[in-house]
Write a structure and sequence with these properties.
- By secondary structure, the protein is α/β, with parallel strands linked by helices.
- It folds into 2 domains: 121 residues, Immunoglobulin-like (Sandwich), CATH 2.60.40.1180; 294 residues, Glycosidases (TIM Barrel, Alpha-Beta Barrel).
- 24% of the residues lie in helices and 26% in strands.
- It is built from 10 helices and 25 strands.
- The strands form 6 sheets. Strands 3-4-7-8-9-10-11-12 form an 8-stranded parallel barrel, surrounded by 6 helices. A 7-stranded antiparallel β-sheet has the order 2-15-18-19-25-21-22, covered by helices on one side.
- α6 crosses α8 and α9 packs parallel to α10.
- The longest helix has 22 residues.
- It is globular.
- Bound molecules: alpha-L-arabinofuranose.
- The site of alpha-L-arabinofuranose has 11 residues, from loops.
Length: 501
Amino acid sequence: MKKAQLTLDPNFGIGEVDRRLFGSFVEHMGRCVYTGIYEPGHPTADEDGFRGDVLDLVRELGVSVVRYPGGNFVSGYRWEDGVGPRSERPTRLDLAWRSTETNEVGVNEFVDWTRKAGVEPMMAVNLGTRGVREAADLVEYCNFPGGTYWSDLRIKHGHERAHDISLWCLGNEMDGPWQTGHKTAEQYGRLAAEAAKAMRQVDPRIKLVACGSSNSGMPTFGAWEATVLEHTYEHVDYISLHAYYEEIDGDLGSFLACAVDMDQFIDAVVATCDHVGATLRNRKKILLSFDEWNVWYAKRFAGHENLEAARTPRLIEDNYHVTDAVVVGSLLITLLRHADRVGVACQAQLANVIAPILTEPDGGACRQTIFFPFAHAARYARGRVLRVEPSSPHYDTARFGDVPLLTAVATQDGDDVTVFAVNRCTNEPLGLTASLRALPGHEVVEHLTLAEADRSLTNTVEQPDRVRPRTVPGASVVDDELTAELPALSWNVIRLRRRRP
Ligand code: AHR
């Protein structure tokens, strides 16, 4: 059996685990909102029309923060359409996804849903077709206590208490030519800075996210971040990153290694932020908001121009297999390994649209395979992230060169230490040993793994339990050394606890 090693030492920490790393994303797209989280008349729907089965799964998933309402959708959105009496709300043609938007769910309903789900809302403003005035008005509507036009309107709409939304995105993917109201970095940087100032004048407590590149393959990547930050540095707290991965042309080895790309993407954006900070003589550190990431089989998407306008079209409802779950696990490990600079991360999206939760209208809901690594990380990654430096056999990939078979990270929270590990080897288990000399007296609580002999297995609403994580025997600590066997192509969580004297 191939072997890999790492060392767990509390003296080498990366940073605290920010709960906001376990965020998600609800866009008015396809069936994420309508028949996803919201379906009045569904057997489990509550008095506000929210699906109870989905709320239960969201709580189980352990999501901390949810970005809303887009995505590309936000760049044509008039937030005022979604507030006030439902009977007076207009139905609009959404340009991003060529869908009919009935506005049954708007900002107040979404905030109500977040309270039920126990998550924090993260709101995006439209800087595509709208500007400074409308962004500031939305902050006033949501966060101002009362006694002004917009805050009193919120109160009239039944929300006496301000929503107190802390995290705000200044638009979405404004570098993308597909974006409604696409801008140059110069245009966007100026607009984002002015919107940020006005929004902060309404509520100085808010935290702001400037748009970075839509992905690291954009021709303007790097230059976009630098120009945008030159304009916005003193006004924003985060810059966004988006990345979606898929297996291309049967190149499984590169797909399994895509966390390497995410890793390099993060390093490049951190370097750009710090370069701009240095040139501006500004000691503040800009954090990263990786507010869209996931596996997405985007090459299967027929394109916007081929869409029929409908209310709940089945858009990009990828059904994830075991390999996808292992890749999602490796991406979560990468996010944790950058806990010093990545302050927010949102898996895109939450329900139906490239999502961990699938639903059927008037029917059931299920956990996709990618649900499990996310839920494990959200539950067990607590306290401080430890800097583990694995040594592992490598394999050759077409896109990323030589890549280790093992990717891993660990967290420590008091007496609990948890190792998260992915074995990228498709046909052999990997023997892991981890030195615990700096953390003496620990024993194994549980070794959870997600791996199947048939890695093409998926879960569906009809067959929801084909793929489940399992507790496996064999992991042990002897003389402060952990040994465990990581099955071929697997996601693993090894939970350790200090023995009570
Ligand atoms: O999540 C789907 C889409 O991907 C979002 O609307 C957009 O921001 C990104 O390109």
